[in-house]
């Protein structure tokens, strides 16, 4: 029988990692780290989880350690956030290019300066091109579910890519919510042991991480991109199997009250749940408005996304990050994804919720009202923002 | 060799499943200078063989030590270390 318990979202992730029976976890246990590795350390110390917990001296080393562990075929997990992910950045690329299916939870935080440990999506956007499968969570249950799912997908022999599970710092990571925990036997049915076909073995020597001179580097990148895009099939299959096993189904693009919607709001992460309240109110008043949320951020779900927004006239994209000199990164990708589509909705972008700034229902009301106004009359501003003085 | 492969020929993560295939790599292409051995001066001490960072110097049947130009990158360490002044580096385009 599954159990419904109150868990901090960080602890829900740790619980998923425990139930996935990871072999190795490496983490740097100081700010901006979260309660995820703290809880994992307790589990290992208390004998609840039989894993090597390696406390390293930096996030760069944390990811390097994970690569070494994955190279011998260990199920491997780490977690970080904000500045930690930045320090790790170099090795984040190496993980995907060497096709090591490390799973990493990122409790999204702002980037300094000024010094901030509070939430936004700047850290996530800084790693969007690193070749990791990336998903966003809206609540603690999803953080648990998608962490389990991440091992299932990343370790699939047809995939072998690392997976990043994004959950908003504080507004999700530090919030206690009811979470349904499955039976261990159900988890084992869903998640087979990791069988890495290229595990380092002294009896069968091989080379991982050879250099790539100009006559082969381009080919390696094309091979990586093709394999990465093809991982979509297993991503979808993994979600179907997850739903069939645990009863909760996930999709690359999550829809909320999108039927016959003329206006769509697009959000990512935990604020989506606040935005849903605003959508409810407006629907009750008869407004043809709905909400979509990108669950799958990479590989970008072009097909599902285009299908979802097809009938809408206006798409308002809410970003929690500024790409300096460009605007909202999600907005720019969304608009680009629709450029060749006929017909396509008008796309406007508004930025807010930076560095721990809350997004209230009133703020989302403003986003929708202002979005409609821009669509009608144009913006006339360098950058559209919400809740910034 | 590598320039005949297409992206479809590469193993997952570009792993090389066969050990020791670095020996196929022609590093001699990198060279701008090559070592020339003067057998009159060579005392067969083998210091060049010991110091060569690429193990590109090999003993010949007559007991001399000569660079294998398939691998020799032309670093000049052999010429620098030779106590008899028997090795000199000449430009690659010189005959």
Short description:
With 389 residues, chain A is α/β, with parallel strands linked by helices. Chain A has two domains: 3-192 and 208-246, Rossmann fold, CATH 3.40.50.970; 254-377, 3-Layer(aba) Sandwich (Rossmann fold), CATH 3.40.50.920.
Q: Could you give a short account of the major beta sheet of chain B?
A: 2 strands, antiparallel
Number of helices of chain A: 13
Q: Which residues of chain B form runs of ≥5 with pLDDT under 50? A: none
Write the CATH fold name of the largest domain in chain A: Rossmann fold
Principal-axes geometry of chain A comes out as globular
Query: Which CATH first-tier class of the domain at 26-91 in chain B would you pick?
Result: Alpha Beta
| 3D shape of chain B | elongated
Can you count the helices of chain B?
A: 2
Structural class by helix and strand composition of chain A: alpha/beta
As laid out across the biggest beta sheet of chain B, the strand order is: 1-4
The number of distinct β-strands of chain A equals 14
Helix content range of chain A: 40-55%
N-to-C CA distance of chain B: 27 Å
> How many domains would you count in the coordinates of chain A?
2
Helix-strand topology string of chain A: EHEHEHEHEHEHEEHHHEEHEEHEHEH
Approximately how much helix is present in the residues of chain B?
A: 10-25%
CATH homologous superfamily designation of the largest domain in chain A:
Thiamin diphosphate (ThDP)-binding fold, Pyr/PP domains
